[in-house]
Design goal:
Elements lengths: L9 E4 L10 H11 L3 E4 L6 H17 L4 E4 L2 H7 L3 E4 L6 H8 L4 E6 L2 H9 L4 E4 L16 H10 L4 E4 L17 E4 L1 H4 L4 H16 L4
Parallel strand pairs: 1-2, 1-8, 2-3, 3-4, 4-5, 5-6, 6-7, 7-8
Helix pairs in contact: 1-2, 1-8, 2-3
């Protein structure tokens, strides 16, 4: 799948921590129904077999909504389930090595916190960048903060799309307007909400304002 940067507008990252009895499949369905435009399955504590079974289930939902579907970190699961791509962090496998494994046609997302990391990721085959943490976040306690100015500099330094991530919610997302980002990535702002569908719909509208896409 070739990446259309418009699909990065509202990038949903899964987290089962907040589901409160709901299945992840139901939560993902509601998120995509509400307007999430991109989906990353993030699982840090599942064995590969369980991860793969979950990935196959979630991939079907993403396909129904024609939303790009990537796996966080686990290249083996991404390839085994036929995901559209994979997203890796700075502490995971190097982007150029991931690109060699997944081939030219899969989507490769790379996390970056500095201009240097961003430029290197693009040179090594990244299709888009996830930049953060732009606000403090309970999801990733070890995440380094990225200032608005650094976010803006990264957007200016690369030609691939940039998604901001980290502590973004409906109350602070508009602070990112003017940074040059192509979308916002959220976790709890969707999956911790009582009405996931409504939360996603509201965030999509806010994301349009932030990236300057009002259609």
């Amino acid at each position: 799948m070739k990446l259309d940067k418009r699909s990065l507008l509202l990038y949903a990252v899964t987290d089962r921590t907040w589901l409160g009895g709901r299945t992840l499949a139901d939560a993902v369905h509601d998120a995509l129904e509400g307007g999430a435009t991109f989906l990353q399955l993030r699982e840090k504590n599942l064995d590969d077999d369980s991860f793969l079974q979950l990935a196959l289930e979630i991939k079907e939902i993403a396909a129904k909504y024609k939303v790009p579907f990537v796996i966080n970190d686990n290249i083996n699961v991404a390839l085994a389930c036929g995901a559209d791509g994979v997203h890796v962090g700075q502490k995971d496998m190097a982007a150029k090595d991931v690109r060699k494994i997944i081939g030219p046609d899969k989507i490769l997302g790379v996390s970056a916190q500095t201009v240097e990391q961003a430029v290197a990721a693009e040179e090594n085959g990244a299709d888009y960048l996830g930049v953060g943490s732009v606000f403090s976040t309970s999801t990733k306690l070890d995440a380094d903060a990225v200032s608005f100015e650094t976010l803006k500099e990264i957007c200016q330094a690369v030609s691939i799309p940039v998604v901001a991530i980290g502590g973004i919610n409906k109350d602070n997302a508009r602070k990112l307007k003017g940074s040059g980002i192509d979308g916002i990535a959220v976790v709890s702002a969707i999956f911790a909400q009582e009405n996931i569908r409504e939360a996603a719909a509201e965030l999509r509208q806010i994301a349009r304002e932030v990236v300057g896409n009002e259609d």
